[in-house]
TrEMBL record, chains A, B, C, D:
Keywords carried by this UniProt record: Aminotransferase, Pyridoxal phosphate, Transferase
Keyword Nucleotidyltransferase assigned: no
Pfam families for the chain: Aminotran_3
Cofactor(s) essential for the protein: pyridoxal 5'-phosphate
Matching SUPFAM superfamilies: PLP-dependent transferases
E.C. no: 2.6.1.76
Gene this protein is translated from: ectB
Origin species: Litchfieldella rifensis
PANTHER family: DIAMINOBUTYRATE--2-OXOGLUTARATE AMINOTRANSFERASE, DIAMINOBUTYRATE--2-OXOGLUTARATE TRANSAMINASE
Record-given protein name: Diaminobutyrate--2-oxoglutarate transaminase
Enzyme superclass (EC): transferase
CDD domains noted in UniProt: OAT_like (cd00610)
Length: 421, 421, 421, 421
C-alpha cells in the first residue's frame, strides 16, 4: 500500500490513520476492505455516522437513481423536490408518530455547524448568552461550539483565545455515587452570587460519545428537563452521535420521555455517510430572520435523498429499534464478562452504554490502546473515547449481522485476552 | 407546485426560496428545471459552487462508478484510496505546475470550517491572536469565522456576544480614488499605540464575493504580501468563492503572482456541489498535533473522487482558463454597456470583477432586487451581493455554453430595460 | 438635612444612602454623627475600610504633620520618602515577623485595580488564562475583576458582554455537610475533558465578605494550597476585606498557615479610609516589565504615610490581635444567642465568621433588611451581605471600645426582638 | 539617598523612578525637592494631576481644617456634607455657567474606573456593545478600559486574552493632510458589511495625552458630535487628562462648543493630587439601578473637600482660563522656536497642543529621552509621550509662576541645545 504521499501531504493533525495505518478502498455493511484485500469488521462505523452500515444497497440505489435523473445536487437553501421529500418524510415517519412538532433549520452539513446554529438561536430567543454544557461533553470545535466542548486538546489549540459564553456543570454521576449533580446545578441557579450567569440553554448528550460513552440516567434527564422548564432555560439535546437509532430509539431522549426545545442531528442523519445536519426547534422558538445564518452547503440534495430513504427504510416500523436493543444486550453482556475478566486480572474495568452505544472502561488510555491495536491486527476496527481514551467503544452499524457482531466481539475478546492474559 | 410543507416546516431563516419561490427538481449544465417544467438559466450556480455546471456527465459518471464499486463513502480521517488519489491529483495537476508546495488539512467539509481551521493554525503558529480581515469580507458564520466577517446581519445575530480576536482594515479602494488603503494598515502596524494588536494573519478574498464582487488590485495584493512578509504576518487567501477557476486561474491569487502562507478552498472544490473544503498551508506552518482539530465529515470520499476527476478534466491544460477569460470579457462588455445605459437613465451604475466573477453595481438593493425579480420571471436565476445587496452578480458556470451565456445576458438586459426603461 | 441636590444630582446607582438616608458630617472612632446631631455606632466601618476607626488621632496627626511639611502628596510611581517609609515599615513590621518575602506592586489605589493587576500577573507568569474563583466570591467590578465576581447584579450590568477567562468552583461548604468541594475541583483538574481550562491561578477570600461572611475551613485552605502547589497553579488570596487584622491576624491566611503566591490588600490598608491598594507577590513571580501596568494614583503619599503609621501603631506587638479575638468572641457569643432566639421564633438563623468579621444569617434579605432598618432608627449603622442580602454582618472597627461594642450589640438585639418579637 | 529598599521591594513594573532616580520629599507649587535638597521645576505635575500645583495653600488649609474637625473621611456612597458641598459647587461653579445639565456617578476614585463605568453605562443605555475609540487613545488599563486603549505595551500584558467590545478609528489627522478621518468612520457606519458593529458610544480625548499631545481639530470635533447625534451613538469625552482647565477651559470640549453625553474626569479633579474621579451623564442616560456598580472608595470626602475648594478658588471667574491661554502661548512660542532649531539641525521637529497641554515632537523616543534626561540633570522634571515616546510634553501646573515657567523652558532649551548642538 502506497502511503508516502498521504504521510507527506496531509497535515500532522490526522489521527485515525495513525491507529489504522492502512489504505481502505471498499466497504459494505459492517466490513471495510483495505488495499491489500484484508477485510476488517467495523465497530467504529464513522464514529457513529454509519448506523445503517456502509453502502446500504437501498440507499445506494436511491442515490444512484437520483444522480441518474440529473436531480439537483446542490441547491443552496432554495426549494427543491428533494428537500420537500425530506421534510415530509421527517414529519410523517419520525416526528408525528412521536408526537413531536418541530421546525427544521438546515445549517451547514456538519455537526458543529448545527450546534453553532442551535446555540445562537437559544441566545437570540432568550436574550441571554450563557450556554450550560457538561463535563466530558463534546459538541464540536468551531469557536462557538468549542465553548461547550470539554476536551482540553481542542480548547488549548485556539492559540490562547479563551472561549466565551458557556459554563460547565458536572454530568450525571460525575461526583460519584449518591450525589445528584443536578443539586449543584439547581443550587447555582438559585444563588444570585454563584457566578453562574442565568443560562440561555443547557446543551447535553443523553449518552456522551467522545466523553466516554456515559449515559445520563433516565430520572436525571427528567429532572434536568424539569429544572429547565421551571427556570425558563432552553433544553438542547445534541443528538448528533446518540441519535438516529444508536441507543435503540430514533431520538436518544425518547428513553427519558423528555421533549427538548432544540435538537441537533447529524452523523447518521443522511444514512449513507454524507455530510448532513439539521436543527429541530419548537416552532415558537424560530426567531430567525431571513438569512441570519447561512452556509453554502445547506441544501445538499443527495443527503436529503438518502436521509428520506433511510427513514422510510428503517423507521417505518419498530423492527430496527427492537433489533438494536437486542444486539445492544449482546454487546452489553459480552462487555460485562470482559470487564469481570479484566477486573480479576487486576485491571478494574466496567461496562456501560445504551442500545448499541456501548463502552468498556479499562481504566487507562494505555490499556485501551493496546487492546484496539491488537484488535486491528486481528481484523477489527474499534476505537477509544473518554478523557484519557480509556474506554473501548462499540459503535458498530445498527444493521450489523449477528455473525459479524459476534465475530467482532470474539476478536475483541481474543485481543483483550492476548494483551492481558 | 406544492410548497406548504416547505413554508410550514423550514425555519424562517430560509432566504433564496424567497427570491425564487419555485420547487426545483432537475439541473444540467447551466440550466435548472422547476417542478412545473419551466427552465431557468443559472447565473448563481450555487453561489459559486458549481463552476463546472450541474451534474457534469464526466464527474457524475466518476461518482456513480465509485458508488457502484462500493468505494468507501465516509472515512473519517483514515487513509483511503480516494483521499490518496485526491492528494496526488492536487499535487500533480494543481500545485506542481504552479510551483506551489503546500500541505493539506482536511477539516469539516464547509468553508467556514476551513476558515476556522486556517485562523486557528495562524494563531497557534504565531502565538498571536489578531486576525486582520477587510471591510465587506465574508468568511463564514461560525463564531471563529464570524469574527472576520463584516456583515452586520450575521454579526448582530449572535445573541449579543461580541466576536473577538479580529480587526477590520479597509479593502482596496474603500477610501476612494487616490488613497492606498494599505498606507493605513502599514501606519497602524508601525504605531505602537494604534490599537491594532500585532496580527497573526491577514485573511483576504482577492475578489470579494458576498461583499459586492470587489476585486483587489494586483499591485495592492503584491504590496499586501510584502507587508505581511516584512512584519512576520501570515497571509491567508480565502479562495472559497474566487478560487477553482472562477477568476480565470485555479487560484485567484495567481493573477497577482503572490504566494499565500495559507489558502482555503471549498465551494467548487468538489466540482459537483458536494460539501468539501481543504486548507493548504506552507509545510513549515503545520504546527498541528494529531487530533487537535476534528470533525466527522473530514474524509468524504465522494468529494475526493469528483474533486480529483474535476482537476483532471478541467485543469490538465489551459483550455478552461482561456475560456473563462474570454467569457469574462463577454460579460464585462455587456455589463459595461448596461451600466452606461443605466447611468444615462439617471441610475449611476458600474461594472467590476475578474474572470467570470462579475458584478453590475446598480447603486441600491432596491434597484437590484427589481432587476433580479424580473429576470427570474423571464427565466434567469441571478442574485445580488454587496452590503446593501446593490450589486447584481454573475457567477454562471465556467462551462456555460456561449448560447446560454448570451441568452442569460439577454434576459438580464431585457429585465433591466423593462424595469428602468 | 438638605438632601434634594443629593437626590437630584447623584446617579440612581447610589445604594447606601438608601439604607441610611441622612447626611453624615463627622466621625470619630466607632461613631458617626449626622447633620442633625444624631450619633450612630458604626458596625459597617466603611465596609471594612476603617479597621482602626474613624479619624484615629495618631494617624490623623501623622497626616496633618505630613501635609504641614509640604510633603509630596501625589508622586506617580516616582521614589518618595513616603513610599520608602511605607515599604520599610511593611517589611519590618509585617512581612519579616511572619517569615514572608514579597515584592510589592502599587497599582491604582482601589481593590479592583489590585485584583486586575494580580490576575494579569498570574496570566503573564504562567502563560495560561484561566482564573478560578469561587461561588459567592467578590473581587471587584472592573471587567477583568468582574470575571471572578459571582454576583449577578454586577455581571448582568455589563450591557450583555460576557466576562471571560474565569471559572467558578464551589466554595468550602457550598455543597453541604460531608462534601469536600475540593474533591470536585481536583476531579476537574485531573480530567482532560472536564471543560476546566488549566488554571493560571485560584483567587480566594479566606472569609468571603460580600458573599455572606463565609469562612473557609482551615484544613480546606491548606488542601487548596497543596492542590495549587501540586498543579503549578498560583494561589492568590484576595485579602482586601478580610486582611489588615479583620480576622484577628494581619493577613487572614495566617490562620491556615498557608503562603499565597500573590496577595491583594486595600480597604483598611491605609488605616485612615484613604484610597490605597497593593499587590504582594513572591519575588520570582515579578514578571512585569517597566510600565506594563500603570495608573495615575499609584503613588498616593498620604496613604503611604497613614499606612506606615498604622502598621507601627497597631502591628508592632500582638495587642490588637488578641483584642480582636477577644471582641470577636463577644460578637460570636451574642450572635449565637440571637440566632438561637430567632430559630425559636421560627426564623432559622445561624452565626458564622472569624475574628471581627461576623455574620448573623437570618435566612432572607427581607428579614435582614427589617433588622438593619430598625437598628438604624435606633442609632446603629449595620449592613447585610450574602447573595440574598440575608446575612447581617458586623464589621465594626477593630479598635471599638467595649462600651460601644456592647451598646451596638444591644441595639441590634433590641431591633431583632422588636421586629420578630 | 537610600534607594536600596525601593529597588529591592518594588515590582519591576515601576517606571518614573527609572527616569528620575532620586527620592523626592517635598513639593510646593511647581517645585519638587529631593532628599538631597536639590530642587526641580515640575513640568510633569503628576501627569496632569496637579493643575493647581503641589500643596496649594488654600486647598491644603481646607484639607487640614476638614481633618481637624473630624469630618468623615471615608463614606462609601452614603450622603455626607462633603459630598453635598461638592455637588453643589460643581453645579453652581462649573455646570450652570456652561449651560450643562449632568447627573454625577461617583465610581472608584481612578480614571480607569470612571472609564469602565462610562463604557458600561453606554452599553446598558443603548443595548449595544461596541465602543469606538481612536488610534493613540489612552483610557486606562483595567480590562474594560484597556479595550479602548491603543498602547500595545499594555494590550500585550494581558497574558494573551484579547480585549473585546471595541473598535479603533483613526484620530484626527492620522491619515495625513487632506484626509478627514471622519469620512472613514462615516463610511463604515453607513456600510452594513464594514465589520464595524453599530457603536454604543464613541470615547475620545479632545487632546490626546499619553498618545502624544494630539489635539483634535475644532471642526472635526463638531462633526464627530453631529455624526454621533445622527446615528444615535453616545459621545463620551474622556477629559481625565485634558479636563480641569488644562486646555484653557474647564472642560476641554468647550473649545468646540460640543456637549458630550457622558464625561469622565479624574486626575486634577480633586485639585490636590488626591485619588478622585466622577462620571457626568445626561440625566436621561442614568439607567443605573441601585448598586449595579460599586467600589469601596467612591465616597472619599477629602477629595470632595479639596475639589470643591479648587472649583471655588479657580473657576469662579475667568482669571485662570485667561492665564492658561497666555502661558500656553508662551510655551507654544518657545516650542515652535525649538522645533525650528531642531529641524535646522536635521532633526525634523514640530510643536502642538492646546492651552498648557503642549508637546514638542522630536521624531523619536531616543531623541526625546536624551532631552528629558539632560533636563532632569539640570533641574527640570519633564516627560515624554506618544507611541514611540517621541514627544516631549509640557504639563506644568496651570498656576506656575512666570518665573518658573521661563526657567523651566530655559532649562529645556539649554538641554536640547546641549544634546543636539
Amino acid at each position: 500500500m502506497q502511503t508516502q504521499i498521504l504521510e507527506r501531504m496531509e497535515s500532522d493533525v490526522r489521527t485515525y490513520s495513525r491507529s489504522f495505518p492502512v489504505v481502505f478502498t471498499e466497504a459494505k455493511g459492517s466490513r471495510l476492505t483495505a488495499e491489500d484485500g484484508k477485510q476488517y469488521i467495523d465497530f467504529l462505523a464513522g464514529a457513529g455516522t454509519l448506523n445503517y452500515g456502509h453502502n446500504h444497497p437501498k440507499l445506494k440505489q436511491a442515490l444512484i437513481d437520483y444522480l441518474a435523473s440529473d436531480g439537483i445536487v446542490h441547491g443552496l437553501d432554495m426549494w427543491t423536490k428533494a428537500k420537500r421529500d425530506y421534510l415530509e418524510t421527517l414529519e410523517e415517519v419520525i416526528l408525528k408518530p412521536r408526537g413531536l412538532e418541530y421546525k427544521v433549520h438546515l445549517p451547514g452539513p456538519t455537526g458543529t455547524n448545527a450546534v453553532e446554529a442551535a446555540i445562537r438561536l437559544a441566545r437570540v430567543a432568550t436574550g441571554r448568552h450563557n450556554i450550560v454544557s457538561f463535563t466530558n461533553g463534546f459538541h464540536g470545535v468551531t469557536m462557538g461550539a468549542l465553548a461547550t466542548t470539554g476536551n482540553r486538546k481542542f480548547r488549548e489549540a485556539t492559540g490562547g483565545i479563551p472561549t466565551q459564553g458557556s459554563a460547565f456543570m458536572p454530568f450525571d454521576g460525575y461526583l460519584g455515587e449518591g450525589i445528584d449533580t443536578l443539586d449543584y446545578f439547581e443550587k447555582l441557579l438559585g444563588d444570585n452570587s454563584s457566578g453562574l450567569d442565568r443560562p440561555a440553554a443547557v446543551i447535553i448528550e443523553t449518552v456522551q460519545g467522545e466523553g466516554g460513552i456515559n449515559p445520563a440516567g433516565i430520572d436525571w434527564l427528567k429532572r434536568l428537563e424539569r429544572i429547565c422548564r421551571d427556570q425558563g432555560i432552553l433544553l438542547i439535546v445534541d443528538d448528533i452521535q446518540a441519535g438516529c437509532g444508536r441507543t435503540g430509539k430514533f431520538f436518544s431522549f425518547e428513553h427519558a420521555g423528555i421533549t427538548p426545545d432544540i435538537v441537533t442531528n447529524s452523523k447518521s442523519l443522511s444514512g449513507f455517510g454524507l455530510p448532513f445536519a439539521h436543527v429541530l426547534m419548537r416552532p415558537e422558538l424560530d426567531k430567525w430572520k431571513p438569512g441570519q445564518y447561512n452556509g453554502t452547503f445547506r441544501g445538499f440534495s443527495l443527503a436529503f435523498t438518502t436521509a428520506a430513504a433511510a427513514m422510510r427504510q428503517f423507521w417505518s416500523d419498530d423492527t430496527l429499534e427492537r433489533d438494536v436493543q437486542r444486539k445492544g444486550r449482546v454487546v452489553e453482556d459480552r462487555f460485562q464478562k470482559l470487564a469481570a475478566w479484566l477486573t480479576e486480572k487486576g485491571i478494574p474495568a466496567s461496562e456501560r452504554g445504551r442500545g448499541l452505544m456501548r463502552g468498556l472502561d479499562v481504566g487507562s488510555g494505555g490499556h485501551a490502546d493496546k487492546i484496539t491495536a491488537e484488535a486491528f491486527e486481528n481484523g477489527l476496527v474499534i476505537e477509544t473515547s473518554g478523557h484519557d481514551g480509556h474506554v473501548v467503544k462499540c459503535l458498530c452499524p445498527l444493521t450489523i449481522s449477528d455473525e459479524d457482531l459476534l465475530e467482532g466481539l470474539d476478536i475483541l475478546e481474543a485481543s483483550i485476552k492476548k494483551v492481558f492474559g
